[in-house]
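CORE FACILITY INTAKE
Project code: CF-77B
Contact: R.S. (postdoc)
Sample description: multi-component assembly, two entities in total
Requested service: structural model of the whole complex
Turnaround: standard
Below are the sequence entries exactly as provided by the requester. Do not edit them.
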Amino acid sequence: MTTSTDLLRVEGVGRDFDVSRPWLNRVLEGAPRQLLHAVDGVSFGVRKGETLALVGESGCGKSTLARLIVGLYAPSRGRILFDGVEISDPAAQADAARVRRRMQMIFQDPFASLNPRWRVRDIVAEPVRVLGLASGAADVAARVAELLRQVGLSPDDGDKYPHEFSGGQRQRISIARALSGRPEFLVCDEPTSALDVSVQAQILNLMSDLQARLGLTYLFISHNLAVVSHVADRIGVMYLGRLVEIADAQELFARPRHPYTRMLLDAVPDLEMSGRQRTPVAGEVPNPLSPPTGCTFHPRCPHANERCKAEKPELVWRGETASACHAVEESRI
Amino acid sequence: MTTAVLEVRDLRVEFPTRRGTLVAVDGISFSIAPGEVLGVVGESGAGKSLTGNAVIGLLEPPGRIAAGEILLEGERIDQLRGEALRRIRGRRIGAIFQDPLTSLNPLYTVGQQLVETIRTHLGTDAAKARVRALALLTEVGIPAPEARFDHYPHQFSGGMRQRVVIALALCAEPRLIIADEPTTALDVSIQSQIIQLLKRLAREHGTAVMLITHDMGVIAETADRVAVMYAGRIAEIGPVRGVIRAARHPYTAGLMGSIPKLGAGAGKHRERLVQIEGAMPRLNAVPAGCAFHPRCGKCFERCRTERPVPRPVGANLTACWLYDDEHRPAAR
């Protein structure tokens, strides 16, 4: 449900990528233009101070959505509003730029997202300088030292280069850089996927400490349901570019509604080894270039009927949870 | 007890460099029985993949086996070279690697690759090899194998490719399969399919499987026993239930606590994850005594100077001085 307290609102956002063959091939071979709907009609809101997690398998559009929100891509359809200001409108970029500085992004790969030729203090100081948050070398240095301490590094680490750090420490540097612009909203795209579990625990704990201390709002993107269940207040599940279910985290794990959510939860390896009976997972994610008709999950769904094959289900809200499934809507499951 | 398919005794893998010798695998011993799945788990740099590579003879120079023995069905294989090694690889030891796209030749169809492998190892004629290849594709769960036989690797999805790689590893009915992160590149729903497949094949063929992974969840679902590696050494080894539910070694306990549990206290009721401070030591700076001691909350004097050997604690073998009755400090 999108309410007025939402810090970020995404309304019917879609993004297509043109993956057609080159022009000459199209002319000679008569190949048609081909569009990949990476994100299709997604709507949700992120409330101030919460962590909303988006989960899904590869190719479900979760990273594209993250990039749409921070403005690395422009949406093909729909609107994105941050604190009531539309940031997806190309005509109003001045307004957008003013609110955009209140959001930052943390990327998955801490080896690729830091400039190897820059010292850590320059990496962390760049947003401070660009956004004019401190004036004078001494102020900037003090701010950088404070940021490095905040993420559990030593201010002396500022003199080093990224290659001198381990993966977990690099991710701390990324977090320090993201925080240096004093953002309210952080988009975290798989921030711990490249890390070992013990290091992942350090980063997740750090992120939750920072959220409590600085009152941050997180949009947390991950394929790992266990991580998501640990960090999220609410969870959205994506499949082939669409949001299929969104619910309170505890509710989602206790009573998953959409058949895809049920399947995902069932597929996670069980550490408790309770010997629970698994429903065997059937099939694979279809090719997004030629998605199935109707509900895109119907070929893998045990509850699919004729309506599912023909008609695309919309996201229907019931109280605090929503799912896009005909079977749930008709109370068949 | 039947002979173990694989027995590794005091294996030591070294990398001589200009600045001294790095010991990547440091005196580890374990064995795998027929039909058993041994999980080898550890974080990056723990030496788990190198152990697997040492067994198949795929150590990249200058890496070398400096000490210890590797026995395949009672026969030493660690000193084999060239042709003798090649006859064992593929024939008696199969391998499955993380990335199915790099373990398949993109220029040959899946069928050609299977037939070639079968003919090399079993010496059958082309027609028989084709029949066996189709049977293998069916066994690993590839739909319409007749049609897929003539497809190239790029025409398969990631999960299907990994199935083809498993079929290739099974070509010569090996006694041992080394699976190095076989599901890491796959999505969670495909991962569970591949895990089920590996388990079934080990059971039905009596193949021993060494499953190398960083994912405790995969181990919990697949393995019979598990070895936890840290800085090139085995910290703890034992039945999966014993290690996961009742970890004795402080590293294993910390590792288990650091894994987020599904649905456990989601949202507002979440608990903090157990945090092991610091990181695994680099190979050129492995601490004296127990390699884990600088990060261990229960460390005492002896841990700093003397290296613990794995000793029986409950059902596990644990390399930790805490469980040595004679020398344990009085107040714990």
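Facility notes:
- Chain B touches chain A through 48 residues (CB under 8 Å).
- DSSP finds eleven helices and twelve strands in chain B.
Invoice: internal transfer
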